[in-house]
Specification:
It is a single chain. The protein has 462 residues and is mainly beta. The protein has a single domain (3-461), classed as Beta Barrel (Porin). 12% of the residues lie in helices and 43% in strands. The two termini are 42 Å apart.
Amino acid sequence: MKRSSFVRWVLALFACVASLAPFSGQATPALARQVNLQCTACHTEFPILNDFGRAFKLGGYTMSAELTDLPPIAFMVQPGFTHTRTGVPGGAAPDFGDNNNFALGTASIFYNGRLFGPYAKSLFGPSTAEFFNKFGVFYQHSYDGVAHSWAWDNAELRYADTIKLFGQTAAAGFYINNNPTLQDPWNTLSAWGYPFNTSPLAQTPAAATLIDGGLSQQVVGAGAYAFINTALYLDVGVYHTLGTGFQSFMGIDPTDQTQVPGVAPYWRLAYTTTDEAATHSWEIGTSGMVADTYPTRINNSGKDQLLDIGFDTQYQMMFGSNDLLAMLSWTHENQRWNASQALGLSSNATDDLWKAAASLHFLHDKTYGAAIQYFITDGSRDTLLYSGSANGSPLSDGVILELNWLPLNKSGGPKFWPRSNVKFSLQYVIYNHFNGGRSNYDGMGANAAGNNTLFLSAWIVF
């Protein structure tokens, strides 16, 4: 199949998904209603998945108790208050003050679950419905309360079934999505990685690997996965940057994007084990992507090449009504700036960038949570690539401390909408280094600690 035909086919399927949820987390009441269970069946503190939640996702969001006639629609709002140690002269963002700002960070509408919701039988009849009910969808359309704009967010279409592979039972399927790692069932990769909610009004480190959100909502990808004998997970796919017209229509600004003009292969391999009581689980894996890219969409100076390789592990334990989760992740990016150096965007012909994080989460009585993470990003010095750093270094590191309260996590919401949930969070981000050193060199003269951020938020799903 020619690449242009492949892209048109993928976009046609994506358009079908979007038409079912026109501008209408893993953790939404629509999915809870579909299986007729409270959020704690699939999650510890949302959006962290447990074993059952991972099985539900691997099944393509299609598992159902067949007990609801409601459409698979849900809503989310994330208001918050931000205080940074040093204010931002001129305002943290347009229409906001220098410091101490309240904002509606994100408001989202979801269409997720079975592709045709609970209506496949009535639409197609029992035999045909059995086939169509193997298609699941996760579609999120979000309002940015800081930029005051709507755009598509995470979007995925899946077909899932149980098959025999190498003589073993496997949960397997195909997917189309707009964000590499969105399909992954663990919380160690970027799309669902910690921190799950951050301030939209605080400065954040500039350097990041391509796979760490550098292509989210800008690409379309297709792939296949298999979870063999509930132990070995395999996933391979390819991604391609969407056209500027389509991105603009979906609310994404394509200006200065890193463009993947061909296809970028993605892979994921993980091994996991769980005890018989499903109270302990452990995962270890690797993932990666290789992409030939046009920097800032300029296509007349050759191509850059980026190779991302990551390793991760996760240990999860449930004891009584308590949950413990430990996660480690590391990603290394090899950068060949064939085009960027020619365009004066990079000082070096080659660079390296790496990112690591270690997190620990505890949830008591499914209600009271605490989390801590140490994070670090570092790599080669490049004065043009990291022009916001006086020493040309991408170094940023620090600690995130967080307290959570989930008062509805066990009992659910009010009777008229029982599967709703809320998480109240107090988060503090402490920087040791920021954008190259102990000073951020952003023109304000603030040191790294000046970017320390206190963020109070509510995460409401209904």
